[in-house]
Design brief:
117 residues; alpha+beta; two-stranded antiparallel ribbon; two-stranded parallel sheet; 2 helices; 28% helix; 22% strand
């Protein structure tokens, strides 16, 4: 970095990207990165869930012995974005479309949002 002195690199503005991690139990981890100029709200959470489910269904289709789940247990932290109408409407959409028979949404206890329960 000493060679970079005087180039203006030290004055460059950094970006803080917003991230969301998803753990699909026994199937894998997914990390989503959002442009810092876009709001990380319920739409972002739903988009992450939707993309994760698409990847999950691709894996299920590739495995002839895999059993299609009838229940989906969705565990999130208690942030307002996860308790909003849009999130519950998306869950209802998945049930009404026949993707799952039952969708269970559970909120983690305060202070335990980063544990795999």
């Amino acid at each position: 970095m000493s060679d970079m002195k005087g180039t203006g690199v030290s004055d460059a503005k950094g970006y803080v990207f917003k991230t969301q991690g998803v753990l699909l139990q026994a199937w894998g981890y997914y990390l989503y990165v959002l442009d810092p100029t876009i709001a990380a709200n319920a739409n972002f959470s739903i988009e992450c869930l939707h993309r994760t489910l698409h990847k999950f269904f691709e894996q299920l289709r590739a495995d002839p012995d895999a059993e299609w789940p009838s229940e989906f247990y969705f565990q999130v932290d208690g942030a307002p974005d996860n308790k909003c109408r849009a999130m519950f409407m998306y869950a209802e959409y998945l049930v009404r479309c026949g993707v799952f028979d039952v969708m269970i949404i559970s909120f983690l206890i305060v202070g335990h949002t980063h544990n795999c329960v």
